[in-house]
Design goal:
With 310 residues, this protein is α/β, with parallel strands linked by helices. The protein has two domains: 15-106, no CATH class; 109-310, no CATH class. The chain is 21% helix and 23% strand. The protein contains five helices and 17 strands. The chain has helices at 21-31, 61-75, 81-91, 93-98, 289-309; strands at residues 8-11, 40-45, 51-56, 109-111, 114-116, 119-122, 126-130, 137-139, 142-144, 147-151, 155-159, 165-167, 170-173, 178-182, 192-194, 197-200, 204-208. A five-stranded parallel beta sheet has the order 1-7-11-14-17, with no helix packed on it. A four-stranded parallel beta sheet has the order 4-8-12-15. Helix 2 packs across helix 3 (81-91). The chain starts with 7 loop residues before the first strand and ends with a helix. The structure holds calcium ion (CA).
Length: 310
């Protein structure tokens, strides 16, 4: 089955008291073909630090098996693939909790995702609303061309996001009114932005507490020069992109990019392998078109010279 556009939302509740209203609303939206919940986790940590987890999805079992591991990877939770998914569905919270031992005390980690062409009132690409120091670590994602109808087309944060980190991402906003909006209603401390390319072709790029994101942290604002957006090459970098070899080292990025290719390679030919920004690492061709042409001309000329002498 095809998926997309897909949106990842993290919601926090200060005083969780639910009586089935959320599930009923999601069922209603599913029935009207408005949204489908691919996977959701309700996580509750009590005063003693015990974690309870409940799964919720309105995909069929077959669809959930196909997508389960992708979503687990997206939010950085070790659900242990299909086995963990089955176990969670069959045995409920207790079985699923076994698969997420890394969750307690850590935040969601989103790495190597291409998040594009989503629409929401706030936070078309990434929407995070949290009541305490949470919100996750976002590394080497490409977040582009999303629409936040009211604000935050590509990123919208709300709540206490001072521990949220954005590192080596590309954000390209092509629809306003605002690309990245860090709502300061509850806290004026923004997430930390380090070594990202934050760029808008339309609308205002930054709003709220992250309005100065470009002033520090080695962030840039330049056209990332994506490849022509055919399905196989969409959002990959082209030679000359300012995102090439522009990242900071991070073990979170892993050893491969979103296409499964080696992650840290020398993309600008200066002899130093440096991580790129965004979900894809550019691997330059071994011989450029110009070099190949020059070699061919040199070969032809040498042959021609020999032939003339003969
Ligand atoms: Ca590189």
């Amino acid at each position: 089955m095809s998926i997309g556009p897909v949106q990842l939302i993290v919601l926090g509740f200060q005083h969780p008291e639910f009586h089935g209203e959320i599930i009923a609303e999601l069922e209603r939206l599913r029935e009207s073909d408005t949204v489908r919940v691919i996977d959701s986790l309700a996580v509750y940590k009590d005063a003693d630090g015990e974690v309870e987890v409940e799964h919720l999805s309105n995909l069929s079992t077959e669809e959930a098996i196909e997508l389960g591991s992708k979503v687990g990877a997206l939010v950085g939770l070790g659900i242990e693939g299909e086995e963990g998914l089955y176990a969670g569905a069959e045995a409920g919270a207790e079985a699923a909790a076994d698969g997420i031992s890394a969750f307690n005390g850590s935040s969601p980690i989103a790495v190597n995702n291409v998040i594009h062409d989503n629409t929401a009132p706030f936070g078309g690409g990434v929407g995070v609303s949290v009541p305490s120091s949470f919100g996750g670590t976002w590394v080497n994602n490409t977040i582009a061309d999303n629409i936040g109808q009211s604000s935050g087309s590509d990123i919208y944060t709300q709540g206490f996001v001072e521990n949220m980190q954005f590192v080596n991402n590309i954000v390209r906003t092509t629809t306003g009114p605002y690309g990245i909006d860090c709502d300061s209603t509850y806290s004026s401390t923004p997430p930390t932005f380090t070594s990202n390319d934050l760029f808008a072709t339309r609308g205002t790029l930054l709003r709220g507490s992250c309005v100065n994101a470009l002033a520090s942290g080695g962030n840039i604002s330049a056209d990332p020069q994506f490849a022509r957006e055919r399905p196989r090459t969409a959002y990959r970098l082209t030679a000359g992109s300012p995102a090439i070899d522009a990242g900071v080292p991070t073990s979170v990025a892993g050893s491969t990019d979103a296409a499964g290719r080696p992650r840290v390679v020398d993309g600008n030919g200066d002899g130093a392998a440096v991580i790129d920004l965004g979900a894809y690492e550019l691997k330059p061709p071994r011989v450029s078109w110009r070099e190949g042409l020059a070699t061919t001309i040199a070969w032809y000329r040498s042959r021609h010279a020999v032939a003339s002498r003969a």
